[in-house]
Amino acid sequence: MAGAVCQICTEVLGYAQTLLQNNASETLVINYIKQGLCAKLGPLNQACSQYVDQNGRKILYELGQDIDPSIVCHEIGVCSTMKSKNSLKSIIRNKQAQNDAAPGPVCQGKFYFIYIKLTSYFKLLVLF
Q1: Which residue from 35, 49, 52, 98 has the least number of CB within 10 angstroms?
Q2: Of 91, 64, 66, 63, residue with least CA distance to 77
Q3: Domain spans, the chain
Q4: Structurally, what CATH architecture does the domain formed by 2-101 represent?
Q5: Angle, to 10 degrees, between the axis of helix 2-21 and the axis of helix 26-36?
Q6: What is the pLDDT of residue 30?
Q7: 13-17 long-range contacts, Cβ below 8 Å, gap at least 24?
């Protein structure tokens, strides 16, 4: 499956590059990437879409600089031969780890209490 996803990414970003060369809007190209790539990733569709929302301008910049789409796919982590801490795969893995290690309501309540106390303290310092 990984090889197929890599191929799809390369094809989608190749056409996205053509759209950019023909002066298509950023919004149109980003939506094309979401439909052409993210929508084909099944349960990872939402994470992919969020990644494209956050990093779409960087992807478009690289495509606009005539960087080969297969290199861009490697950089974002869709193709597995290159690894990056900001890759789509890494972000998905990190989100899963964060969900597994998320603090419970009691812990969150204590952090909120400390936050309120610190905020009040700093407001007093500003007044004096």
Answers
A1: 98
A2: 91
A3: 2-101
A4: Orthogonal Bundle (1.10)
A5: 160
A6: 95
A7: 13/37, 13/59, 13/63, 13/69, 13/72, 13/73, 14/69, 16/59, 16/60, 16/63, 16/69, 17/63, 17/64, 17/66, 17/69
| Residue of 82, 81, 91, 85 whose CA lies nearest to 38 | 91
In this structure, what token pair is assigned to residue 24?
Answer: 């298509």
